[in-house]
Specification:
The protein folds into two domains: 178 residues, no CATH class; 57 residues. The chain is 78% helix and 0% strand. The chain has twelve helices and no strands. The protein is globular, with a radius of gyration of 19 Å.
Length: 238
């Protein structure tokens, strides 16, 4: 049994991720139903959801799925979609000081977009603890599995989540999270660069390259902004 403070941290993480967990429900149902339509067995769907745990990549894989499966193309596409996790993992690594050596790779292996954002937000306000992270990851992971399996059983419960506005739920969550990261004009430059790069590449190049372009542009501008601010601070001190 976890100590009282760890229990409180776990509950806090679970409550923080709850809106995102609710937002993924229709998509979990839809992915489960589409997987069945593509001919995957219940065991195969469960194994995919349990080991991949990346909704965008799973939807792409299901859309590309055929017999025989284009394994090389699926692997490349999944890599391009999820390569942002390299940057996210690098960003989160510095906040895992309270985690054990085995706990760090376990934590990163359960890192989804929402979990990463919530963990980063927590690190700005207080120390990120393993219990808090477990609350984030545990709730979202189990929730995703449950609703995928519900989609397998119930079929297409929601044929088009976008028509009901569910797709905006994720956008709304991240807009709320961004307000906690706001640091004035420095943050604005990063957001503008990331958004502009993603939009340009989205319409110029077919495929999920815009995800990688937006992430890399944001990181490069963040480095430049940080260095210019650091240099200005040194000059002021001098």
């Amino acid at each position: 049994m976890m100590p009282t403070n760890s229990s409180a941290e776990f509950r806090a993480g679970a409550m923080a991720i709850l809106p995102a967990a609710v937002a993924v429900i229709p998509f979990g149902l839809l992915l489960g139903a589409r997987s069945v339509e593509k001919g995957l067995s219940t065991a195969e769907i469960f194994l995919m959801c349990a080991t991949v745990f990346a909704g965008s990549a799973q939807f792409v894989v299901i859309d590309l799925w055929s017999q025989p499966a284009p394994w090389a193309f699926i692997a490349l596409t999944t890599l391009l979609i999820n390569i942002r996790h390299v940057l996210m993992g690098a960003s989160l690594a510095g906040k895992l000081g309270g985690f054990s050596s085995p706990g760090k790779p376990v934590a990163v292996s359960f890192m989804a977009d929402e979990i990463w954002a919530m963990a980063e937000r927590r690190a700005l306000e207080a120390r990120l603890t393993p219990a808090y992270y477990a609350g984030l990851a545990g709730v979202l992971y189990v929730n995703w599995l449950v609703w995928n399996m519900a989609g397998v059983v119930l079929g297409t419960a929601i044929a088009d989540p976008e028509s009901l506005g569910f797709d905006f739920a994720f956008t709304a969550i991240f807009i709320g999270l961004l307000t906690g990261f706001w640091r004035g004009t420095q943050t604005a430059w990063v957001l503008v660069a990331s958004s502009a790069a993603a939009v340009v590449v989205k319409y110029a190049v077919e495929g999920p390259w815009y995800i990688m372009a937006g992430g890399h542009a944001g990181v490069m501008v963040a480095i430049l902004v940080w260095r210019s601010g650091d240099d200005a601070g040194k000059a002021h001190v001098a």
